[in-house]
């Protein structure tokens, strides 16, 4: 080989080495790493995140350090996240990894720099993070082994205060109001009577036939038809009978016509067959008075009242009295007769 050719090869090798060194130095200057913690103070057994970041030019393959279960003997790694790569401007990449760390030893712990060894080997430069410190606080009382095992403290007994229920009062009132509204709607939809005497003193129940007979006595004493108030007379009599039939036979007599009422009573076995005929006579006469302007004779007025009394007395529910009650009634009757004599 000639001396000239040897010199050319030597110069070419030297230039290549210079260019490679320049490129390596340029790459090394463009790689940076960092480590940051969510907090520098935690309670013993608490957990925080330590974030590792690697900023590098696109196209380089620089591995992260292989961390397993500890950073130091006092700082443990609970979980490692996957690498997250973010594209940045000017052809650079930002690679991140989160480490969930904890410590069960109280005190101030030194976190040494985390070295990216394999990355450093590739770019011929030491790549590592800054050193940090972590303060671990023990919030519990110090345990003295000399005192032995202590019993678990019993629950503290605290007095009950009515004010503790105040916060629930709006909810309770709201539920009661809502239940009342729902009940009202259901009863209204089903056509039931709304109970309005919830907070009133309960009044003794008067049998339906007693109330009807008392009302007929009142109508008789008012002498309505004698005052030419015929329509009012028949309306009062028929309304009394309709109310009685609603309670006695549980039919909606107030809303039914005469024919519908008679159809509803067909399945009822009356003790006297004349009861149905008497009721029909009253209802039909009342219809003629109210709708056809019929003017009955005085005998018909009296007949309607007699038939009304007869219908109630023949269809009423007989009360079964005990022997003591019958005996008391008989003695009372005998005393009344003795006084009369």
**Strands, total number:** 8
What is the multimeric organization of the chains shown? single chain
Estimate the global geometry from the Cα principal axes.
elongated
So how many helices? 9
| CATH top level label of the domain at 28-137 | Mainly Beta
Radius of gyration: 53 Å
CATH architectural arrangement of the domain at 28-137 = Sandwich
Low-confidence stretches: 1-28
SS class: alpha+beta
In short:
Helix content is 45%, strand content 15%. The chain is of the alpha+beta class. Helix 5 packs across helix 7 and helix 5 packs parallel to helix 8.
Task: Give the SSE layout.
Elements: H1 3-29, E1 32-37, E2 41-43, E3 47-57, E4 76-80, E5 84-88, E6 92-102, E7 107-111, H2 117-123, E8 132-137, H3 169-190, H4 208-222, H5 230-249, H6 258-264, H7 274-291, H8 298-315, H9 323-340
Parallel strand pairs: 2-8
Antiparallel strand pairs: 1-3, 3-6, 4-6, 5-6, 7-8
Helix pairs in contact: 4-5, 4-8, 5-7, 5-8, 7-8
């Amino acid at each position: 080989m000639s001396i000239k050719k040897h010199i050319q090869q030597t110069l070419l090798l030297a230039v290549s080495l210079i260019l490679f060194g320049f490129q390596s130095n340029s790459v090394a200057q463009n790689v940076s790493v960092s480590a940051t913690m969510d907090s520098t103070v935690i309670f013993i057994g608490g957990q925080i995140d330590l974030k590792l970041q690697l900023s590098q030019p696109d196209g380089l393959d620089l591995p992260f350090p292989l961390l397993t279960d500890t950073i130091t003997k006092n700082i443990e790694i609970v979980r490692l996240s996957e690498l997250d790569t973010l594209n940045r401007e000017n052809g650079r990449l930002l690679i991140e990894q989160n480490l969930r760390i904890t410590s069960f030893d109280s005190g101030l712990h030194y976190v040494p720099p985390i070295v990216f060894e394999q990355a450093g080997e590739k770019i011929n430069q030491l790549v590592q993070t800054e050193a940090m410190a972590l303060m671990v606080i023990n919030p519990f009382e110090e345990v003295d082994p000399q005192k032995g095992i202590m019993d678990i403290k019993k629950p503290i007994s605290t007095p009950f205060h009515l004010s503790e229920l105040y916060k629930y009062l709006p909810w309770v009132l709201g539920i009661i109001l809502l239940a009342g509204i729902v009940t009202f709607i259901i009863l209204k939809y089903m056509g039931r009577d709304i109970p309005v005497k919830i907070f009133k003193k309960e009044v003794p129940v008067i049998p339906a036939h007693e109330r009807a007979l008392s009302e007929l006595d009142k109508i008789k004493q008012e002498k309505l038809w004698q005052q030419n108030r015929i329509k009012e007379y028949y309306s009062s009599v028929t309304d009394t009978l309709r109310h009685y039939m609603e309670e006695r036979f549980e039919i909606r007599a107030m809303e039914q016509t005469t024919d519908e009422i008679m159809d509803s009573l067909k399945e009822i076995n009356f003790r006297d067959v004349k009861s149905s005929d008497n009721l029909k006579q009253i209802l039909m006469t009342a219809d003629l008075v109210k709708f056809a302007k019929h003017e009955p004779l005085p005998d018909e007025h009296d007949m309607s009242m007699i038939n009304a009394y007869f219908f109630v007395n023949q269809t009423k529910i007989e009360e079964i009295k005990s022997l003591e009650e019958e005996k008391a009634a008989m003695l009372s009757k005998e005393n009344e007769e003795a006084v009369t004599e």
